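Progress against Task 2.4 (sequence-to-structure conversion) is shown through the following example record, which the project officer requested during the mid-term review.
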Amino acid sequence: MERYFRLPLSFFFFLWELPQNLVGLATYLNLKRLKKIKTVDRAQNRLFIETPHRGVSLGYFIFWTRHSNRYSHLKNDCRMHEYGHSIQSRILGPFYLPVVGIPSILRHFYSIRHIRKYGSDWQNYYAGFPENWADKLGGVKPSNA
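Structure tokens generated for the chain above:
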């Protein structure tokens, strides 16, 4: 009986997350055109796209990199973190970009400014909303947890 609901439910979630799915598709096609995609695999009802330096979750499309892992004991914490953002997207639907996307981008830009000003990473990037929520949803556990 569950298989009968799979397609309608997938279609519902595709529409529910339509804004981020459209941006995700455009990002995927652009990265493919630029030959910036390392691997692609489908898991957990999402498309995981490994790239050289990008970590962003846009609905069905999860872009991640091995180069931004924070914890040596986790082989793929960027992937897990971005998967957490995709769960936020599933929860918030069309509200994801303003509620999660904007604060996340602002934190990213502040992090870049911090690196330029102080010459080191901003250690609190993942400590605040929405990054800490994405870590929790994605199962990212710090080395001291």
